[in-house]
């Protein structure tokens, strides 16, 4: 098999991958007798991972454990699977770090808030997919975000995940050096999702850049945190610059999600609904039932995509 050039910024151990060797990029793993996925409470010795997870084709991740349980129950109904939705159990119940639910070929996992939390989850998820010998898996982050110039309730499918300087890259400090990885996502997947959104009534959706920050308050230019070091005008100027750079929403995980999936050759997409328009305020004051409906929108979109891929819809 001819090697292909790795689609990222060249920080991998040799810069090349074998096309069929998915997904992990770590030569040290080959010599380990057992791999303990500590935060999932799973291990290659105590669990038959190929039997448990070998048929997975779609992985959906999001911050909240309750949301990802609700998504698992929703997809169970959407795919008309046998059994009672109330019997879907948390595979990671031996740990309270993450929650994981398997529904047919769909895995639903919570990742907590922020880059470090999702990054740990992704390391273990990507190893899990590899140990289980999964192939052709699509990954989706279905989350919430602050909109930049969009009506609340709009779903943003991420074109490029950008950092707080609007750069399409993710920086990770490794052994005291900064490693920079590209955060470009799969264009075809984003286009397919946009097409799906057009087939669903009342699902306003756009493709745009998503800014990933390391904080919800000052880091996202909010004036309502415990600390604030800037004026209202400075905040609005920053949001205007973000909008000019193509940013349509702000959240806290997309850059590392995009970077890790890209290095590991996993097709991935980020779909986050906007809870508010940040040009109009900082506080999330929308009624609870409206927020719940908003959070369901990326789930409806991914469910439609999955059903189409599985041949449930023409
Ligand atoms: O997946 P969720 O909705 O948790 O993602 C966003 C980004 C942060 O994790 C969190 C902040 O409220 O929401
Ligand atoms: O404004 C928002 C809303 C949800 N999540 C974020 O990270 N920011």
From TrEMBL:
GO cellular component terms listed in the entry, alphabetical order: cytosol
Pfam families: PNP_UDP_1
EC number in record: 2.4.2.3
Binding sites annotated in the UniProt record for phosphate: 97, 141-144
Coiled-coil ranges from the UniProt annotation: none
The reaction(s) this protein catalyses: uridine + phosphate = alpha-D-ribose 1-phosphate + uracil
GO molecular function: uridine phosphorylase activity
Swiss-Prot/TrEMBL keywords: Glycosyltransferase, Transferase
Residue span, Nucleoside phosphorylase domain: 57-307
CDD domains, per database record: UP_hUPP-like
Positions with a binding annotation for substrate: 220, 222
A GO BP annotation: uridine catabolic process
Domain of life, source organism: Eukaryota
Pathway assigned in UniProt: Pyrimidine metabolism; UMP biosynthesis via salvage pathway; uracil from uridine (phosphorylase route): step 1/1
PANTHER family per UniProt: URIDINE PHOSPHORYLASE (PTHR43691), URIDINE PHOSPHORYLASE 2 (PTHR43691:SF8)
Homology family: Belongs to the PNP/UDP phosphorylase family.
Cited function: Catalyzes the reversible phosphorylytic cleavage of uridine to uracil and ribose-1-phosphate which can then be utilized as carbon and energy sources or in the rescue of pyrimidine bases for nucleotide synthesis. Shows broad substrate specificity and can also accept deoxyuridine and other analogous compounds.
Protein's UniProt name: Uridine phosphorylase
Lineage: Eukaryota, Metazoa, Chordata, Craniata, Vertebrata
């Amino acid at each position: 098999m001819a090697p292909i050039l790795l689609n990222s910024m060249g920080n991998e151990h040799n810069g090349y991958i074998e096309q069929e060797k998915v997904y992990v990029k770590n030569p040290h793993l080959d010599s380990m007798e057992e791999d303990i996925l500590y935060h999932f409470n799973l291990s290659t010795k105590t669990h038959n991972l190929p039997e448990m997870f070998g048929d997975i084709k779609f992985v959906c991740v999001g911050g909240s454990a309750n949301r990802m349980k609700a998504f698992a129950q929703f997809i169970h109904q959407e795919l008309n699977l046998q059994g009672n939705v109330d019997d879907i159990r948390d595979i990671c119940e031996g740990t309270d770090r993450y929650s994981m639910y398997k529904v047919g070929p769909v895995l639903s996992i919570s990742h907590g808030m922020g880059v470090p939390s999702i990054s740990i989850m992704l390391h273990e998820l990507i190893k899990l997919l590899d140990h289980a010998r999964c192939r052709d898996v699509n990954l989706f982050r279905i989350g919430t975000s602050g909109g930049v110039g969009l009506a609340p309730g709009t779903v943003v499918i991420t074109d490029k995940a950008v950092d707080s300087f609007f750069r399409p890259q993710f920086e990770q400090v490794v052994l005291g050096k900064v490693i920079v990885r590209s955060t470009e996502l799969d264009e075809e997947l984003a286009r397919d999702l946009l097409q799906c959104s057009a087939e669903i009534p009342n699902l306003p959706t756009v493709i745009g850049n998503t800014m990933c920050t390391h904080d919800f308050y000052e880091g996202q230019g909010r004036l309502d945190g415990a600390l604030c070091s800037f004026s209202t005008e400075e905040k609005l100027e920053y949001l205007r610059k973000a909008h000019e750079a193509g940013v349509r929403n702000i959240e806290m995980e997309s850059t590392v999600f995009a970077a890790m999936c890209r290095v590991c050759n996993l097709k991935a997409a980020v779909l986050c609904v906007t809870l508010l328009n940040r040009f109009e305020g900082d506080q999330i004051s929308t009624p609870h039932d409206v927020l719940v409906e908003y959070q369901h929108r990326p789930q409806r979109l991914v469910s439609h995509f999955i059903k189409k891929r599985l041949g449930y819809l023409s």
